């Protein structure tokens, strides 16, 4: 019990239930999905492998409760989001520990993820109170008079399906839920099967904060089993998805005629010019490439250094990388386990391919269990898989370049377009290069990242569709409604009504 939050009703022993229409339920499938700690492979808990029938039912519950929630005034919704944030903060230690265990995130980062989500809830509540429409008078166009006015305001889309990835399972479901609810939608949330436990706690938190039963619902289950059914369901009015480009592209094909917000994979490249500040650059690269063992969409995933700085940059990055702590996430080691043994195998395959094709190993290429040591590869060329594929692990390739033009070409050749980085003291040149990069965001003299969360965050090409970030997410999960007033000609009589003073 935390401040009268009773989490015990969520589960029977180790078996967590799913949350629909204000009740915690067991699936009729009788099938459970095991959730293992990727660090020590302990079985933490099980979640329900829900059926398509249960998916259909939960979506219909959300659909039936749209009106009830839309009737809540904006200030009441804001109050509920703020209370939700307060409850998250009170539970941040407990939820942070659970998050650490279920995905292997360093403890402090896991607790920060809970608190960051609370901050998003608060900021969403606050920014929503500024939502307004506009009134336009028709006489700007020939043939139209002042008697024609358009009055616009924003309305919810309906049922929003929120699907999150394993690497931020609480934050990247919460950052969808908050704007969806604030805009007046009802929600069906599906957490990742590799990290569902912390996100399930939204059921307790939001109910306690005042969200009525049926407005917010959580279904657990394998994306491969119920994912297609969920995204293509006719009563789903909008999909807000974060995950791999492969999954995102697939669901975009089958979703049908509904708005999509897709935050997908990345291969963020750091262009390092000869005049870059070495200390700033080294710190950004090491932190950007290896925090949470590289399991971030905005991780630094390619470094393109010019000849004048390359050697000393690679030496300093290697030296700092060798200082990174490795091991138990509970002890806040920077390098911990990847999410699964299968993911480790994939990352190892990229390393082996690069070495077979002539890359130079500077450090790493060692594995124990699900931990891969931070690995730096020099002299990577465009024939190697690591130059183009997203490892989602602690591997950093250096692709040496001879000109900014070559750097732009290699950056843009990627299928991904999430973020890019330019390190130089010449800000004019940085701005000119930034204009040429086919990405959502360019960081100048800083590592790629999503925060702060009121900034626009988007990917181009295979990195996504639409824009996250509080204000942008609110807009994406609502639409304008327009009322055009065709006032009568009576308005013109007013002048005749005035009797000039004698
Ligand atoms: P993933 O395998 O694509 O899974 C993401 C979510 O999609 C999970 O909840 C998954 O459920 C669900 N899913 C799987 N198949 C589905 C289907 N057919 N229909 C609907 N949903 C389905 O990605 P991940 O491994 O969790 O996350 C890593 C990837 O996400 C990386 O590529 C990373 O770059 C990307 N990512 C991007 C951002 C960003 O903001 N751009 C942020 C974080 C991560 P199950 O778990 O049950 O399969
Ligand atoms: O992969 C998660 C993505 O949203 C990056 O977030 O804050 O680590 O840059 P952040």
Walk me through this protein's architecture.
The protein has 502 residues and is α/β, with parallel strands linked by helices. It folds into two domains: 2-133 and 157-264 and 463-478, Aldehyde Dehydrogenase, Chain A, domain 1 (3-Layer(aba) Sandwich); 269-456, Aldehyde Dehydrogenase, Chain A, domain 2. Helix content is 37%, strand content 22%. It contains 17 helices and 28 strands. Strand 5 and strand 6 form a beta hairpin. The longest helix is centred in the first third of the chain and has 22 residues, at 107-128. Bound molecules: NADP nicotinamide-adenine-dinucleotide phosphate and SN-glycerol-3-phosphate (G3P). NADP nicotinamide-adenine-dinucleotide phosphate is lined by residues 163-168, 172, 190, 192-194, 222-224, 227-228, 231, 242-244, 247, 250-251, 263-266, 297, 390, 392, 418, 459, 464.
What's the gist of this structure?
Helix content is 37%, strand content 22%.
What are the salient characteristics of this protein?
Aldehyde Dehydrogenase, Chain A, domain 2, Aldehyde Dehydrogenase, Chain A, domain 1, single chain, alpha/beta, binds NADP nicotinamide-adenine-dinucleotide phosphate, 6-stranded mixed sheet, 2 domains, 17 helices, binds SN-glycerol-3-phosphate, 502 residues
Counted up, domains total 2
- Architecture per CATH nomenclature, i.e. the level-2 architecture of the largest domain: 3-Layer(aba) Sandwich
Here the CATH topology of the largest domain equals: Aldehyde Dehydrogenase, Chain A, domain 1
Termini separation: 80 Å
Average pLDDT reading: 96
Structural class: alpha/beta
Largest sheet: 6 strands, mixed
Low-confidence stretches: none
Query: Are any ligands bound, and if so which?
Result: NADP nicotinamide-adenine-dinucleotide phosphate, SN-glycerol-3-phosphate
Tell me the β content: 15-25%
Share of helix, binned: 25-40%
What is the approximate shape? globular
CATH class identity of the largest domain: Alpha Beta
Total number of β-strand segments?
Answer: 28
